[in-house]
UniProtKB/TrEMBL annotation:
InterPro entries: Metal_resp_DNA-bind_regulator (IPR052509), Tscrpt_reg_PadR_N (IPR005149), WH-like_DNA-bd_sf (IPR036388), WH_DNA-bd_sf (IPR036390). Residues 24-97 form the Transcription regulator PadR N-terminal domain. This is PadR family transcriptional regulator. PANTHER family: PADR-FAMILY TRANSCRIPTIONAL REGULATOR, TRANSCRIPTIONAL REGULATOR RV3488. It comes from Myceligenerans pegani. Signal peptide: none annotated.
Length: 126
């Protein structure tokens, strides 16, 4: 996460932190990636607005491997060192889909409670 986080971004950061595993699984849906490449994909997807600390990501990688949701393997040596790559498993894809469904349902409820359900239809989402 960026050190330039504004105080009003603290709540959003807390919400996002609870979804680190799902965010990593999402970053792996299209292709295998090495650790720092996942970090960059997450950062770039938000235009630099959100960064997950590398230590948090590597803890997530270990947890996701242990849970059988991703697999780790060593790539070929390139530019002086071997990189550990991660690939999502079928179980990881299923967990990702379930987590996204749960997030959408939760977002719908929160939007209804806060009276912001129309905000998503104004082009303010991906």
């Amino acid at each position: 996460m960026s050190n330039t986080e504004a105080p009003d971004d603290a709540f959003a950061a807390d919400l996002l932190r609870g979804h680190t595993d799902t965010i990593v699984l999402g970053a792996l849906r299209g292709a295998d990636r090495y650790g720092f490449e996942i970090y960059k994909a997450i950062r770039d997807a938000t235009g630099g607005g959100y960064e997950i600390k590398e230590a948090t990501l590597y803890a997530a990688y270990r947890r996701l491997v242990k849970d059988g949701l991703i697999e780790a393997y060593w790539g070929d040596e390139s530019q002086g060192g071997r990189r550990k790559y991660y690939r999502i498993t079928d179980a990881g894809r299923a967990v990702y889909r379930n987590n996204v469904r749960a997030w959408v349902a939760t977002r719908r409820i929160i939007d209804s409670l806060l009276g912001t359900e129309g905000d998503r239809t104004k082009g303010n989402h991906r």
